[in-house]
Amino acid sequence: MASKLGKIDSTAFHSIIAHRCGYHRPGLLVPASFGVDVAVVEVGQGMAMVLTSDPLSLIPSLGLRESAWLSVHILANDMATTGFAPQYAQMVLNLPASLSIEEFDRYWAYIHEFCAEIGVTITGGHTGFIEGQNSTIAGGATFITIAPVEEIILSSGAQAGDVILMTKTAAMVSSAILAMSFPQTVQNQLGKEAFEQISGLFYQTSSLREALLARQIPQAITAMHDVTEGGILGAIYELATASNKGCRINYEAIPVLPAQRELCRLFHLDPARIIGAGSMIMTCRPDKVQLVIDKLAQENILCTAIGEILPNAQDKFLIQNNKQQTLVYQETDPYWAAFFNALKQGWK
User: Are residues 172 and 136 in the same domain?
Assistant: First the structure.
C-alpha cells in the first residue's frame, strides 16, 4: 500500500522512473523530468512535437460539466507552459460502473465543447466502464502540439536574476472546489457573498490565455510552470529544481482574496501550499517585468512579482513575517486530506 497520496516526489521519480523509460531515441529533446510539464520530440525541419499527460477528472459532487472543464483545462495549462496552445488529444477513460450511459454522453459532450473552444482535435484513445472504480480520476489524457523547436519555453529555463511572477491568485481551483462541494457549510460559515465569489473562481482556472500573451513579449519569459499539487510554493520549488537554480519567495506578496483566505482558515489550509490551477508561474528577465504585468493587465489578468531566481540550486528560501527560512518541498498536498475530512464530518 502506498505510504502517501498524490504525485510521487523527486526521490521516487529519479530512483524508479527516470532511468527506466524504455528505448532512448536520439530525437528526444526533453525526456521525462521532475518539475518539467512536457516532453519534446524533434520531428524535423526545425519543428518539434510537444506532449503532456494528466489524469482526467470525474467528481460527482462537483458535476459533469465542471469535471469536464477540469479534465481539459488542467491539461491545457500544462501545454500552455511552453507558450503554445494544445492541438491534439488522446484520451483514455476508465469510467465507474455507476455512471449511466446518459451521464457519460453529457460528460463527453462537455469534453468535446471545451476542446473545440481552445482548438484541440481529439484523435483517439480508449473508453470503458470499470467495476470498483470509485476514484475522482477517470483515466488520463495526452495533449500534443507541433511547434518550432527554438520557440518552445520549458519550466527548466529559469535564469539567475529572473523575477518570479504569478498570475491571478493562489489556491484558485482548490478553494473553488471546496466551496462548490460544501456549499451549505461555506455559506453558513462565511456568508453567501463570499461563497459566490469563491465558487465564481472555478471557470477562471485556465491559464492558457496569459501564457500565450506573455510569450508575445520578446526575450521576456524564460520559464513557465502551472500551479498544481503543492500550490504556489511547490510550483516555484519544482521550476527552480528543474532549472538547477535557487529561489527566494516573498510569502506576503502572494495574492489571495480575503474570501479565499477565510475559506482556507475554515479548512485549516495554507493557500500558498494547495492546488492552485488557474495561476501560472513565470520567470521573467528583470527589464521586461513591467511590460508583462502591463500586457496582462490590459486583459484584466492580475500578474504579481513575488520573488527572484538565485544562482545556487541549494538556496531555496521563503521570506515570511520578515524572516528568511529554507523553502521545504511539501511532498503531500494537504488539500486532499481537508476535502475527505470534510466529507467524513458530513459537511454539506
Answer: no
List of E strands, 1-152? 28-30, 39-44, 47-57, 88-96, 121-130, 137-148
Neighbours of 65 (CB within 10 A): 15
For each successive 10 residues of the chain (348 residues), what is the average pLDDT?
76 92 95 90 98 93 94 97 98 95 97 99 96 87 98 97 99 96 96 97 97 97 96 97 97 98 98 97 98 98 99 98 95 90 92
| Rounded Cα–Cα distance for residues 342 and 321 (Å) | 30
Please provide the distance, in angstroms rounded to a whole number, between the alpha carbons at the two ends of the chain.
30
The whole-angstrom distance between residue 242's C-alpha and the CA centroid of its chain comes to: 16
The residue among 190, 313, 339 whose CA lies nearest residue 248 is 313
pLDDT (tens digit per residue) in 281-339? 999 999 999 999 999 999 999 999 999 999 999 999 999 999 999 999 988 899 989 99
Distance (Å, whole) CA 271 – CA 198 = 13
Look at the alpha carbons of 84, 31, 12, 327 in this order and tell me if their dihedral is positive or negative.
Answer: negative
Separation CA 272–CA 235 (nearest Å)? 10
Query: DSSP for 258-274?
Result: HHHHHHHHHTT--GGGS
Give me the number of domains the chain comprises: 2
Claim to verify: residue 132 and residue 247 sit in the same structural domain: no
Q: Report strand pairing: 47-57 vs 39-44.
A: antiparallel
Examine the fold and report which residue of 123, 151, 179 is the final residue of a domain before the chain moves on: 151
As a whole number of angstroms, the distance between CA 315 and CA 50 comes to: 31
Whether 245 and 301 share a structural domain: yes
Distances (CA, A) of 169 to 172, 260, 261, 308: 6, 9, 11, 18
For residues 128 and 115, what is the distance between their CA atoms, to the nearest angstrom?
A: 20
CA 184 to chain CA centroid, nearest Å = 27
265 & 329 share domain? yes
